[in-house]
Write a structure and sequence with these properties.
about 150 residues, alpha/beta, 5-stranded mixed β-sheet, 4 helices
C-alpha cells in the first residue's frame, strides 16, 4: 500500500504550466520509500484506483497568478453522498477523490497545491515566480509528509 501519493500535472512544454510535474519529479529525488510520485500531463479517471489505496493524496498544478497570490494550498474532501463526478479525461482532483470513494469505497485525506504561473508560452523555461512557488510547494509537501 502506498502511504502518500503525490500527483503533479501540467504541460511541461508550455513554460510554467509544467510546474506540477517538476515538483513531483523533485519529490521523487528525495527517495522516500512510502512516497509515490506521479508526473502526468493531465488527470484521468484511471487514477481513482491508486488514490483509493493511499493514506494521503497531494495534487500539484499551476494556476495563472494574476494577482501575485503565491502558492495556494487547499484541503480537499469527498462530499458525503456524492456520485463519481466527471468521467471524462479532463478530471480535477475533487472528482477523482469522489470516484475513488464511489468505486473503491475509500478516499484519503487530500491537498491541492496550486503553484503560481505567469508564463504559458511554448518552451520549458520557468519564470522566477513559478520557481519560487515550486520551492514553497516542496516545503509544504515536506510539512504534510511529516504530519502523517
Amino acid at each position: 500500500m502506498t502511504e502518500i501519493l503525490i500527483i503533479g500535472y501540467g504541460n511541461t512544454l508550455r513554460g510554467d504550466d509544467g510546474a506540477g510535474q517538476r515538483v513531483v519529479e523533485m519529490v521523487a529525488e528525495w527517495g522516500i520509500e512510502e512516497v509515490r510520485s506521479l508526473p502526468l500531463h493531465q488527470l484521468t479517471p484511471e487514477l481513482a484506483d491508486p488514490i483509493s489505496t493511499a493514506k494521503l493524496a497531494i495534487f500539484v498544478d499551476a494556476y495563472p497568478d494574476t494577482n501575485s497570490q503565491g502558492l495556494q494550498v487547499q484541503p480537499l474532501e469527498v462530499e458525503e453522498g456524492s456520485g463519481i463526478g466527471s468521467t471524462t479525461h479532463n478530471c480535477e482532483p475533487r472528482s477523482l477523490l469522489q470516484m475513488a470513494n464511489f468505486l473503491y469505497g475509500s478516499a484519503p485525506p487530500a491537498w491541492w497545491l496550486l503553484v503560481p504561473a505567469v508564463n504559458f508560452d511554448f518552451g520549458e523555461e520557468l519564470s522566477a515566480v513559478t520557481q519560487q512557488g515550486i520551492a514553497e510547494a516542496l516545503s509544504k509537501i515536506k510539512e504534510l509528509i511529516s504530519e502523517l
